């Protein structure tokens, strides 16, 4: 029995040893087995490059040259996509080998399973219309090694609309961007709109950060800028989420709107290397409380967190986060572009007599500013200078101001009274546009023209006197001033531009003899207008000039006018009598359309005019009497269009 047990134990031992040996042999065989090569499922040419895709979902592009642009329309085949487009959802890895110089339009569009991409150092450009990685929604990491790439997007036009395109369009899940150690420049629009990006380290090799490079990266809170960067481009970090910013000593210029809308920033230091800060570089950074210039900087200085030029003759930027009152130092001669723009907590500012110029956008959107006195030393007020200061209720313009720029006081709807001093010669377009509270306007006697839409949408103005110095009234100058019921146009005016008085409350208008032309729709939709006098020097009345003036009862077209334009009296349903001057040769399309009350036409022309289609549509030609020169009655009775009038008589 014992002998049997011993034999059984030996047998079991031998079985275990045998099994272990088999396992070891098997493992050794697997270790020594070569790895399986991925199988190429399809390949081909793209331009001069070779592409292939493996059964593991890896797309490999090799060779020297460009990946052509795709995504364009072909009339027969439809949209011409990249040859690997049918595999787009299964591509999980992308290998772009060195030698590839350009990535064309839509090259990898909709590769939604792709999570990481490396741009090799040989790439110098991307397609300029359609994003190469558009719709790569799974993309989280970009390794950017392109040494001298010049651009990765731009501003173009699609179907007539301005449109920004960028390489990583709609790639909102990108969280990491690694900038290679040999990269010289970060191209324009490089990571535009990558809203998931949270941190970027820009290597010391980089000397240029392009326009819009990180624009709209609102998740980007931290950026480390390498110490070789000399230029930060326009809008480079605009509307990003930056909360901290260290500008290295190497930077020489900061572009227009470079940090626009970076509301998380609270303070800035301008290093001694900076020589140029462009317009709006820190505009709408609402959290900034101080901007300090390095004492060794030769171009800029600071005082209590306010940025000036070195000599403190130009106030460059007042921190938008500051609140309360401020007195500009007496050394200042110029309030710079956008200097106080967006300072919504600024309640009062004192401008000293040393200031001679208030530049573009200087106080734009200072919504808490309630009053402003522009001293007599100031000679010019720039474009948008007080744009959208909707809390402004009192305005005094000094008597040395010569020019007021475009949109200077647009949307200052708290203003109720405006006096333009006699020193002012020129007023730009849209100067007081939509200042809905203005009731009284005095225009000085040196203004030579009323610009386009200067008082448009000033719905509370009731009357205005235009001085004798004015020669022209611009496009839409008083349009939509619905309360304006009285205006005097002086004999100095020679032209009234299109829409100048459209949709106003005017009840009567006299166009003086000095005027030679009125633009299209100049008095259109003036539903209260009952009387017009058109001066005898007018040679041209624009189309639709009196369109829909439903209470107008009579009109006289002067003798120098050669044609009555399209829609001139369209919809003037109350018009009863019209006199047509003797030089009119053509009455154009729908000139008197729907003048249903027209009962008398006094036509001075000896020769019947050409009448275009529907010129007198809905005029009751049975009851409307046509008065013509006695010698021309027979001609009118046979002339096309005129013969339809049932009562043609001689002018008495």
Walk me through this protein's architecture.
By secondary structure, the protein is mainly beta. Among the domains are: 38-174, Alpha-Beta Horseshoe (Leucine-rich repeat, LRR (right-handed beta-alpha superhelix)), CATH 3.80.10.10; 184-322, Ribonuclease Inhibitor (Leucine-rich repeat, LRR (right-handed beta-alpha superhelix)); 323-412. 6% of the residues lie in helices and 28% in strands. The protein is built from 2 helices and 54 strands. Strand 24 and strand 25 form a beta hairpin. The longest helix is centred in the first third of the chain and has 31 residues, at 2-32. The termini are far apart. The model has no long low-confidence stretch (mean pLDDT 92).
Please describe the topology of this protein.
Blueprint: H1 2-32, E1 40-46, E2 49-54, E3 58-62, E4 65-67, E5 72-74, E6 78-80, E7 93-96, E8 100-103, E9 116-119, E10 125-126, E11 141-144, E12 153-158, E13 161-166, E14 176-179, E15 185-186, E16 199-202, E17 208-209, E18 222-225, E19 231-232, E20 253-254, E21 267-270, E22 276-277, E23 290-293, E24 300-303, E25 306-309, E26 314-317, E27 324-327, E28 334-335, E29 346-350, E30 357-358, E31 371-374, E32 380-381, E33 394-397, E34 403-404, E35 417-420, E36 426-427, E37 440-443, E38 449-450, E39 463-465, E40 472-473, E41 486-488, E42 495-496, E43 508-511, E44 517-518, E45 531-534, E46 540-541, E47 554-557, E48 563-564, E49 577-580, E50 586-587, E51 600-603, E52 610-611, E53 625-628, H2 633-638, E54 647-650
Parallel strand pairs: 3-7, 4-8, 8-10, 9-11, 11-14, 14-16, 15-17, 16-18, 17-19, 19-20, 20-22, 21-23, 26-28, 27-29, 28-30, 30-32, 31-33, 32-34, 34-36, 35-37, 38-40, 39-41, 40-42, 42-44, 43-45, 44-46, 47-49, 48-50, 49-51, 50-52, 51-53, 53-54
Antiparallel strand pairs: 1-2, 2-3, 5-6, 12-13, 24-25, 25-26
């Amino acid at each position: 029995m014992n002998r049997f047990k011993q034999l059984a134990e030996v047998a079991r031992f031998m079985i275990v040893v045998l099994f272990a040996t088999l396992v070891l042999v098997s493992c050794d065989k697997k270790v020594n087995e070569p790895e399986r090569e991925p199988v190429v499922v399809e390949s081909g040419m793209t331009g001069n490059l070779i592409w292939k895709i493996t059964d593991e979902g890896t797309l490999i592009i090799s060779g020297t040259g460009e990946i052509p642009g795709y995504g364009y329309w072909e009339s027969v085949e439809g949209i011409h996509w990249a040859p690997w487009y049918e595999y787009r959802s299964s591509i999980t890895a992308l290998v772009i080998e060195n030698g590839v110089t350009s990535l064309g339009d839509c090259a990898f569009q909709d590769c939604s399973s792709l999570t990481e991409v490396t741009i090799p150092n040989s790439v110098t450009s991307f397609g300029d219309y359609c994003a190469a990685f558009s719709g790569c929604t799974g993309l989280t990491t970009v390794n950017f090694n392109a040494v001298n790439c010049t651009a990765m997007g731009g501003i173009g036009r699609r179907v007539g609309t301005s449109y920004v395109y960028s390489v990583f369009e709609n790639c909102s899940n990108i969280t990491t961007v690694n900038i290679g150690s040999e990269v010289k420049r970060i191209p324009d629009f490089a990571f535009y709109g990558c809203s998931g990006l949270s941190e970027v380290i820009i290597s010391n090799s980089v000397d240029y950060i392009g326009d819009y490079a990180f624009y709209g990266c609102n998740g980007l809170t931290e950026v480390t800028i390498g110490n070789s960067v000399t230029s930060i481009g326009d809008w480079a970090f605009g509307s990003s989420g930056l909360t901290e910013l260290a500008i290295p000593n190497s930077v020489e210029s900061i572009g227009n709107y470079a940090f626009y809308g970076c509301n998380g920033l609270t303070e800035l230091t301008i290093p001694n290397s900076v020589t140029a800060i462009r317009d709006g570089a820190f505009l709408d950074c609402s959290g900034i409380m101080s901007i300090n210039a390095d004492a060794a900087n030769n171009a800029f200085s600071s005082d209590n967190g306010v940025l000036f030029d070195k000599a403190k003759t130009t106030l460059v930027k007042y921190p938008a986060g500051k609140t309360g009152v401020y007195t500009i130092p007496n050394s200042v001669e110029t309030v710079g572009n956008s200097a106080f723009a967006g300072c919504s907590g600024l309640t009062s500012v004192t401008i000293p007599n040393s200031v001679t110029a208030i530049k573009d956008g200087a106080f734009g959107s200072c919504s808490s500013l309630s009053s402003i006195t522009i001293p007599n030393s100031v000679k010019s007020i720039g474009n948008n200078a007080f744009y959208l200061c909707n809390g402004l209720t009192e305005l005094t313009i000094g008597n040395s101001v010569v020019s007021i720029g475009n949109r200077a006081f647009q949307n200052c709807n708290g203003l109720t009274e405006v006096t333009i001093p006699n020193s002012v010669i020129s007023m730009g377009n849209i100067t007081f546009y939509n200042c809905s509270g203005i009731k009284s306007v005095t225009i000085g006697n040196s203004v030579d023209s009323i610009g386009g839409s200067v008082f448009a949408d000033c719905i509370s103005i009731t009357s205005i006197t235009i001085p004798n110095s004015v020669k022209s009234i611009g496009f839409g100058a008083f349009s939509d001033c619905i309360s304006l019921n009285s205006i005097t146009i002086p004999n100095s005016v020679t032209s009234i531009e299109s829409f100048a008085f459209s949709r106003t409350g005017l009840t009567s208008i006299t166009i003086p003899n000095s005027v030679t032309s009125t633009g299209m729709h100049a008095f259109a939709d003036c539903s209260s207008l009952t009387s017009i006098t058109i001066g005898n020097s007018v040679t041209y009345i624009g189309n639709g000039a009196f369109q829909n003036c439903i209470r107008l009862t009579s009109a006289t077209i002067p003798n120098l006018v050669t044609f009555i334009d399209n829609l001139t009296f369209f919809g003037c349903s109350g018009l009863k009598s019209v006199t047509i001057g003797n030089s009119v040769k053509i009455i154009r399309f729908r000139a008197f359309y729907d003048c249903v009350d027209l009962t008398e036409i006094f036509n001075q022309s000896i020769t019947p005019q050409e009448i275009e289609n529907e010129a007198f549509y809905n005029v009751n030609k049975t009851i409307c009497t046509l008065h013509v020169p006695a010698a021309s009655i027979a001609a009118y009775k046979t002339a096309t269009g005129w013969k339809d009038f049932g009562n043609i008589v001689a002018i008495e």
